[in-house]
Specification:
The complex is a heterodimer. Chain A is an alpha+beta fold. Chain A is 20% helix and 35% strand. Chain A has one helix spanning 59-74, and strands at 7-13, 20-25, 28-33, 45-49, 52-56. By secondary structure, chain B is an alpha/beta fold. Chain B has a domain at 69-172 and 261-302: HypD, alpha/beta domain 2 (Rossmann fold, 3-Layer(aba) Sandwich). Chain B has a 5-stranded parallel sheet with strand order 2-1-7-8-9. In chain B, strands 4-3-5-6 form a 4-stranded parallel sheet, sandwiched between helices. In chain B, helix 9 (146-158) links the parallel strand 5 (137-142) and strand 6 (164-168). The chains are: A alpha+beta, B alpha/beta. Chains A and B meet through strand 4, strand 5 and helix 1 of A and helix 1, helix 2, helix 3, helix 8 and helix 9 of B. The structure holds iron/sulfur cluster. Iron/sulfur cluster is lined by residues 318-320, 323, 330, 333, 335-336, 340, 346-347, 349-350, 357 of chain B.
């Protein structure tokens, strides 16, 4: 399954052969390999698949897309925004 | 707004309802629209959140070949089963994979009948098990699309214990659209929803050929209800405009050029060759195979894993292959709910949460109470 929710990096393990991190998914903490997302850092959110982080959440995009969706969904006049 | 609040909003009910109204209003001007997704998680979420019921009757969402254990070729499962009976060899794979019916036995059956099989949560687990048991040999049965292929590739590149081998059944999604367009045309499908996390690996542009060859729009979709509906909304706008451009409606996760680190690793570990999609067909350029320099890790080259019988893709009567092509629905299969149920799956699409028949069974069970 593809996990819809991103997890927040709490701590990075520098000792491990592969770069791993403790990642918090709404309260559930898991060990995740962050080797393929070099820009990952403590406090950032990652998308994880089968134990590997595949992408770091772009927080600016998350906010901007949501603003657009809000406008489309909530105002009758914002007929098209994209 | 705190980022955690922003993320919660992607599941917000008022946004879901607002989008649903907008979609209905736009759809009124468009006539019948049939869209296909190619992702088992999309189907699962669509059923779970009742999203089809939030769409107008004129919009049909067709589930496609997006369930990794369903499309895993039976020949390879049979090989994994055969390997599990070799003395000193243990096959490791994901829990779902173990239950998938194959020609004679599933991996789970093999385990009960004396084969050596263990469930793992991912490739990292496989490494740990191999390290902890140096005198035994292990074969990681690697299945799944780009997302899991990336993990396996990276691990191989980093170096794995000498007693760990790989049976690679990973598949690359984009070329399967060529197969889908052999059975569909622009009348039966007006656009494709793309699987967000697979595209997070490959990037958006590997799908541009769908516009160029078939003149159909693709929209990259995330997995929350708001994501899926906003992807459908973007698709309707594209159709309205007569545009077939590939659109990224999941830009908080998917970068235009994908995950370059993962792509680089995959390129250095795998070649891509024609690959079987279970029961459906062989599709050019979809099977990941280990490059020759990793032949020493390749279970198919290091062990004799040919089963002493001929493989057969579909159990008689099972319609999985046609369901995955979008030609039939689970309810068209005579065995659905009767002979085939999640607790005793007869065909591959009833095993995993990503299988269309499994999702439909669970969804219908909720509504009809069986
Ligand atoms: S209900 Fe079972 S037998 Fe029928 S198509 Fe689905 S998986 Fe195959």
């Amino acid at each position: 399954m593809c996990l819809a929710i991103p997890g927040k990096i709490e701590e990075i393990d520098q000792q491990a052969i592969m770069r791993t991190a403790r990642v918090n998914f709404n309260g559930m903490v898991k060990e995740v390999c962050i080797e393929w997302v070099p820009e990952a850092d403590v406090g950032k959110y990652v998308i994880v698949h089968a134990g590997f982080a595949i992408s770091v959440l772009d927080e600016k995009e998350a906010l901007e897309s949501l603003d657009l969706i809000n406008e489309v969904a909530q105002s009758p006049n914002a007929y098209r925004k994209w | 707004m705190e980022i955690s609040e922003t993320l919660k909003q992607y599941e917000a009910k008022d946004l879901v309802n607002g989008l649903s109204e907008k979609i209905s209003a736009t759809a009124r001007e468009l006539g019948k629209i049939r869209l296909m997704h190619v992702c088992g998680t999309h189907e699962h979420e669509i059923i779970q959140y009742g999203l089809r019921q939030l769409l107008p009757d004129s919009i049909t969402i067709i589930p496609g070949p997006g369930c990794p254990v369903c499309i895993c070729p039976v020949e390879l499962i049979d090989q994994a089963v055969t390997l599990s009976y070799q003395p000193g060899v243990t096959v490791l794979s994901f829990g779902d994979m173990l239950r998938v019916p194959a020609t004679r036995e599933s991996l789970d059956d093999a385990r009960k009948n004396g084969g050596s099989v263990r469930m793992v949560y991912g490739p990292l687990d496989a490494i740990k098990i191999a390290q902890n048991n140096p005198e035994e040999k292990f074969v990681f049965f690697s299945i799944g699309f780009e997302t899991t292929a990336a993990g396996t590739a990276g691990m191989i590149k980093k170096g794995v214990p000498e007693n760990l081998f790989f049976l690679i059944a990973n598949r690359y999604i984009p070329p399967v659209f060529n197969l889908l367009m052999q059975v569909h045309n622009r009348t039966s499908i007006q656009g494709f929803l793309l699987p967000g996390h697979a595209v997070a690996i490959t990037g958006v542009h590997v799908y541009d050929f769908v516009e160029q060859t078939y003149d159909l729009p693709c929209v990259v979709a995330g997995f929350t209800p708001v994501d899926i509906l906003s992807a459908i909304w973007r698709m309707l706008l594209a159709i309205q405009d007569g545009s077939s451009k590939t659109i990224n409606a999941y830009s908080r996760v998917v970068q235009e050029h994908g995950n370059q680190t993962a792509l680089g690793l995959m390129d250095s570990v795998f070649d891509r060759v024609p690959g079987v999609w279970r029961g459906i067909d062989t599709v050019e350029g979809t099977a990941y195979v280990l490059k020759d320099e990793f032949a020493h890790l390749d279970a198919s080259r290091q062990f004799d894993c040919q089963p002493p019988y001929e493989s057969r893709a579909n159990p008689p009567g099972c319609q999985c292959h046609r369901i995955m092509l979008g030609e039939l629905l689970p309810t068209d299969c005579k065995l659905f709910r009767e002979k085939c149920r999640p607790d005793d799956p007869y065909g591959p699409c009833m095993v995993s949460m990503e299988g269309t028949c499994h999702s439909w069974f669970k969804g219908a069970a909720d509504i009809l109470g069986f």
